[in-house]
Design a protein that fits this description.
alpha/beta, 2 domains, eight-stranded mixed β-sheet
Length: about 425
C-alpha cells in the first residue's frame, strides 16, 4: 500500500486526473516546479492502490532522483519492460520526464507495446511542444496545476472556515486553527498575499525567513535548471545572458497587470537604469526580449493574457498583460512592501479563474477596459477587480466599462470593501475573499 498519510489532498486536480483513469490519452500534469505535481502523482497512485490495483502493477519513476538521472530513453524502455506483468494492466508514473532526451518515442512505444495507463509530469511547456503533439497525434490530456488557491492555503495550514452567528442575528465567516484559536478571514487573506501559495511553505510554517529561503530555492531551480541548463542542451541557444533574464523577470514581476509591449521592454530597462546601455550598445532587440519572455512563459513562471475587443469581437495583437504564477514569489523578488495592491489582487483573481477552468482575456470596450472576460463553454463572466468600492470616483471607474456591455452575462466587481450596495444596475458587487472561498 502506498503511504500518503503526510500528503494533503488536492481534490481539484485529483478528481480531474481520476476522471481520465483507464482512458487512452496520456495524462500530462504541467506547472511550475514545486507546485505539487509529484504529490499529485503519489495521490493518484494511492487512489489506485485503494481501489484494488496491486502495488506491482504500479511503476513510479522520478527523474529528479539520482537513481534515474543519467538514464537514456532506451534504458527507460527496458527498465519498464522488465517490470511489466504479463496479462495485467500496468500504471506508469513518470515525474519530470522532460529530463530524458527522446522520451516521446519511449512513451509512444509503451502505448503500443503494453497494456498500460500513463501519467506524466513536466515543469516546462516545451514538454507539450508541437513535436510531442505530433508523436502522440493528440492522444494526451493536459492537467494544468497551479500553486495553492486561498481555500487550499487555509486547508494546508490547518485552518477551517465556519459560519458563526453574530449578536444581531446575521452570519459571518470566521476561521479556526486546528488548536482552536479564532482568526478573522481578512487577516489570513493578508497572510496569503504575503506568503503566497507554494505548498512547501506549509512544511516550514508561516515564518517569513524560512518561506523566503524556500522561494529562493524554487526561483533558482526554475531559472538555472529549467531555463539556463535546458538552453545549453538545445541546439538553438537564445537564452545566454542570466543578468538580462533576471532583469526581465524583475520587470515583469513589478508590472503585473500592466499593459506591456515586449518591443518596449529593452528600452524601458535602459531608461530606468536597469541595463547598462554602454556595455550593450543599445537595448536588446525585440526578438531577443521575446525569446526571454517566451522561456518564462514556458517554465510557467509567468502567464500572458491577450486583449479582446468586446464590440468588435476579435483579439487584439497589441499590449497584453502578464501575471506571475505566485504572489509569494513576487514578494521574494521585489521585497515585502505594500506595493500596487490593486494589480496584486488582479493577479490572485486571474489565477483563480484559471483554476476554475475559464479561458481569460482582457476586455476592451470603446476606450475603456474590463479587467477580465472569463469564458467557459456554457458560461461567461465580466469581472472588475479593485481594492475598495467605497469611493465614488472608483465606483464610476469600475462600473462604466461594464455598463457599456449589452449582453446578459454576469457582470461582477470584486473588492475587499464592497461598500453598502450589493449591486449597481444589475452589476454585482461581491467581496473578493468570499468569492475566493
Amino acid at each position: 500500500m502506498i503511504d500518503t498519510h503526510n500528503l494533503k489532498r488536492r481534490d481539484l486536480y485529483l478528481n480531474k486526473i481520476i476522471a481520465f483513469q483507464d482512458t487512452e490519452p496520456v495524462k500530462v500534469v504541467t506547472g511550475i516546479r514545486r507546485c505539487g505535481k509529484s504529490s499529485l502523482l503519489k495521490l493518484m497512485a494511492a487512489h489506485l492502490s485503494e481501489t484494488g490495483i496491486e502495488d506491482n502493477q504500479i511503476i513510479e519513476m522520478n527523474f529528479e532522483s539520482y537513481e534515474f538521472k543519467k538514464m537514456t530513453a532506451d534504458e527507460l524502455y527496458y527498465y519498464v519492460k522488465q517490470r511489466v506483468i504479463s496479462g495485467r494492466r500496468m500504471y506508469l508514473f513518470f515525474d519530470e520526464l522532460q529530463r530524458i532526451t527522446g522520451w516521446e518515442d519511449t512513451i509512444n512505444a509503451f502505448r503500443v507495446d503494453f497494456n498500460c495507463d500513463i501519467y506524466v509530469t513536466g515543469s516546462n511547456a516545451h514538454l507539450l511542444s508541437s513535436e510531442y503533439s505530433t508523436y502522440l497525434s493528440g492522444r494526451y490530456v493536459e492537467i494544468k496545476m497551479l500553486p495553492l488557491s486561498f481555500s487550499e492555503f487555509l486547508y494546508f495550514h490547518d485552518f477551517e472556515v465556519k459560519e458563526t452567528i453574530s449578536a444581531i442575528g446575521g452570519t459571518r465567516k470566521r476561521v479556526f486553527y486546528k488548536s482552536g484559536e479564532l482568526y478573522e478571514l481578512k487577516e489570513l487573506f493578508n497572510t496569503y498575499m504575503r506568503f503566497g501559495g507554494m505548498p512547501g511553505i506549509a512544511d516550514v510554517g508561516l515564518d517569513i525567513e524560512k518561506a523566503m529561503v524556500l522561494l529562493d530555492g524554487i526561483y533558482s531551480t526554475v531559472v538555472i535548471r529549467d531555463i539556463l541548463e535546458r538552453e545549453k542542451r538545445r541546439s538553438q541557444r537564445q537564452i545566454t545572458d542570466p543578468i538580462l533574464l533576471r532583469k526581465i523577470i524583475l520587470f515583469l514581476a513589478d508590472n503585473i497587470g500592466s499593459n506591456i509591449s515586449v518591443s518596449s521592454i529593452g528600452n524601458i530597462l535602459i531608461n530606468e537604469g536597469l541595463l547598462d546601455d554602454s556595455k550593450r550598445k543599445g537595448a536588446p532587440s525585440a526578438h531577443t526580449v521575446q525569446a526571454y519572455v517566451n522561456t518564462l512563459l514556458e517554465s510557467y513562471f509567468f502567464y500572458d493574457i491577450k486583449r479582446f475587443d468586446i464590440k468588435g469581437k476579435e483579439f487584439l495583437q497589441t499590449l497584453g498583460k502578464y501575471y506571475i504564477v505566485d504572489i509569494g514569489l513576487r514578494n521574494y523578488l521585489l521585497g515585502l512592501r505594500n506595493r500596487d495592491i490593486g494589480h496584486a489582487l488582479e493577479n490572485v483573481v486571474y489565477l483563480e479563474l484559471v483554476r476554475r477552468g475559464y479561458d481569460v482575456a482582457i476586455g476592451k470596450v470603446d476606450k475603456s477596459e474590463v479587467d477580465f472576460i472569463a469564458t467557459k463553454t456554457d458560461d461567461k463572466l465580466y469581472i472588475q477587480v479593485t481594492e475598495s468600492m467605497t469611493n465614488e470616483d472608483v465606483r464610476h471607474r469600475e462600473l462604466t466599462p461594464l455598463q457599456k456591455i449589452n449582453d446578459n452575462y454576469d457582470k461582477i466587481v470584486l473588492s475587499l470593501d464592497t461598500g453598502l450596495d450589493e449591486s449597481y444596475d444589475g452589476i454585482k458587487s461581491i467581496n473578493l475573499i468570499d468569492w475566493l472561498i
